[in-house]
Specification:
single chain; 166 residues; alpha/beta; five-stranded parallel β-sheet; two-stranded antiparallel sheet; 6 helices; globular
C-alpha cells in the first residue's frame, strides 16, 4: 500500500457520522479499517476516536475492534471518547450532560474490556445491560486502549480509568 511505501507508521481514522466540513467525507470507520488491514502488513491502524456510548452499544465496539485485531494481526488500537454534538446528536437526538457522558463512558469501558477477555458477560449498569454476551471472534493479543481527552475533567477521568490517554 502506498502509505507503507511512503514511510507512514500509523493510520488514524476518526469515527464521525458527519464530516467536520461539508466538502469532507465520513466513512464507516470499521469497514475502512478492515480494508486497510487487508492491504497493509506493518502499519498501525486505529480509530481516531470512537464514541461507544450513543451511536453504538459498547458490545458492538468491542466486537468491531476485536474483529479488526484478527485482520491486522495485532496492529490496531482503540481510542474512546465521550462524544460530541456533531456526530452523536445528529443520529440519536440525545445530549446528556457531562457527568452522564462520563458515567456512560465508564460503563462502556468496563463492557469492552470484559468482552475482550472472551468470557460470557452479564452486565447490569445504570446505562447498559448485557445478557450472556460473548465475543466468539477475537484476538488473543491485547488491543491498546486509549481514552481521548479535551478538557481537564476528561484528563482526570482518563488518568483514573485508562491504560493510556491521547
Amino acid at each position: 500500500m502506498i502509505v507503507e511505501a511512503s514511510g507512514f507508521d500509523s493510520i488514524d481514522v476518526s469515527d464521525h457520522f458527519h464530516p467536520w466540513d461539508e466538502k469532507g467525507n465520513a466513512c464507516f470507520t470499521w469497514t475502512w479499517l478492515g480494508a486497510a488491514a487487508a492491504k497493509t502488513s506493518r502499519i498501525e491502524l486505529g480509530n481516531g476516536v470512537n464514541c461507544p456510548i450513543l451511536r453504538y452499544h459498547p458490545a458492538v465496539v468491542a466486537q468491531a475492534s476485536a474483529t479488526l485485531g484478527i485482520f491486522d494481526h495485532g496492529r490496531s488500537y482503540l481510542v474512546v471518547v465521550t462524544g460530541e454534538v456533531l456526530n452523536e446528536y445528529a443520529v440519536t437526538g440525545l445530549r446528556p450532560d457531562y457527568d452522564e457522558y462520563q458515567g456512560m463512558l465508564w460503563e462502556a469501558i468496563e463492557i469492552i474490556r470484559a468482552l475482550w477477555l472472551g468470557d460470557e458477560v452479564n452486565y447490569n449498569g445504570a446505562y447498559y445491560h448485557t445478557r450472556k454476551a460473548k465475543l466468539y471472534t477475537r484476538t488473543d493479543k491485547p488491543i491498546p486502549f486509549y481514552i481521548s481527552t479535551m478538557v481537564p475533567e476528561s484528563s482526570e477521568f482518563a488518568r483514573m480509568h485508562g491504560e493510556r490517554w491521547a
